[in-house]
From TrEMBL:
It comes from Faecalibacterium prausnitzii. Residues 2-73 form the SnoaL-like domain. This is SnoaL-like domain-containing protein. It comes from the Bacteria. Pfam families: SnoaL_5 (PF20409). InterPro entries: NTF2-like_dom_sf, SnoaL_5.
Length: 73
């Protein structure tokens, strides 16, 4: 896949709400999730590795009470 194909697939899956599938298809096993300065530690801070990113997402969603919408462009 070239960059445009990756971007198109990401947007397609994002718009369909298939965020886990995005990770399965498009993330490397050694991907890194980096937060803004001041938010880099703790369970939702910087993490390394696909499984750590998935766990970070699960922890984030545990705190979500209601999701009003999302979009991707």
């Amino acid at each position: 896949m070239d960059i445009q194909q990756i971007a198109d697939r990401y947007v397609e899956l994002c718009r369909a709400g298939k965020h886990e599938q995005i990770q399965d298809e498009l993330y490397a096993d050694d991907a890194i999730s980096i937060e803004a300065p001041g938010n880099q530690s703790g369970p939702l801070g910087n993490v390394e590795g696909l499984e750590a990113i998935r766990e970070k997402g699960r922890k984030f969603m545990e705190d979500v009470v209601e999701l009003h919408g999302s979009w991707c462009s």
